[in-house]
Amino acid sequence: MQENSNEVMVELIKIRKFYPPDVKALKDVSLSVAKGELLFLTGLSGAGKTSLLRLLYRVEHPDRGLVEIDGMDIGRLSGKKMQILRRRIGIVYQNFKLLSKQSVARNIALPMEITGRQKSFIRKRTRDLLERLGLEDKINTKAGDLSRGEQQRVAVARSLCNNPNLVLADEPTGNLDAENSDRVMDLFNEHRDQGATILIATHDSRIYGLGKHRVVVLANGHIIGAGIKRDPSPSNEDRPQ
Question: Given a cut of 70, is residue 235 above it in pLDDT?
């Protein structure tokens, strides 16, 4: 599904976020993201990418400004209503936040159990995602015994298991080689084609350098650039080895 500019999923208006004693993470940032849009946030470390995502799932609150998801001012939602909203949001945390002593299958199944999915659906969905990500042989492995790259792919599978309307991914390919990065992006693109809105914060120019989508550049808490990438043809030397 292509994005519809008349339907907004994410709206940030003049957001300001400071951390003590004097870190200005976001300074008067405004951004609209359409339903069904895939958008990349990029910029150097400390540019404000992670802070922006954390505001969207409300583990942080802005010091000033408005944050809306699907027309709702999330700053005004009760704890219970925010909890319900989060069930419609898939999150890939930069540090994964897996249950290290639980199996890979359990880590992916838990969000589906919380939303009341049937066991047959959970089993099939878990296996399908792991096969797509090249992890079918790790289904019963404890998450803590996986490599960093394997943990990252499990975190991606968990974020998509409930077919969320909104996906927020913080460096989802940061520990992956080109083949596994492609697997992750194939899943994100398919999910987007089904109507989801996806925001990806990344340093990885390879994953936002191909395709047609918006790329927003942050620096020192400001948006300093935004544009649409349109299917460039990178030379072999541009591809990571």
Answer: no
> Domain residues of the chain, as ranges?
4-88+164-233
- Secondary structure (3-state) at 190: helix
For 33, the token pair is 């993201």
Backbone dihedral angles phi then psi of residue 37, each to the nearest 5 degrees? -100, 145
Q: For the domain made up of 4-88+164-233, give the CATH fold.
A: Rossmann fold (3.40.50)
3-state secondary structure 92-138: ECCCCCCCCCCEHHHHHHHHHHHCCCCHHHHHHHHHHHHHHCCCHHH
* Phi-psi region at 112: left, alpha or beta (left = phi > 0; alpha = psi -120 to 50): alpha
Instruction: Write down the pTM of the prediction.
Output: 0.90
Top pLDDT among 5 and 207 is at 207
Tokens of 135: 């992890």
CB 54 within 8 A of CB 168: no
Tokens of 225: 């650039």
Cis upstream peptide for 62 (omega within 30°): no
Alpha helices in the chain (DSSP H): 49-56, 79-86, 104-114, 119-132, 148-160, 178-193, 205-208
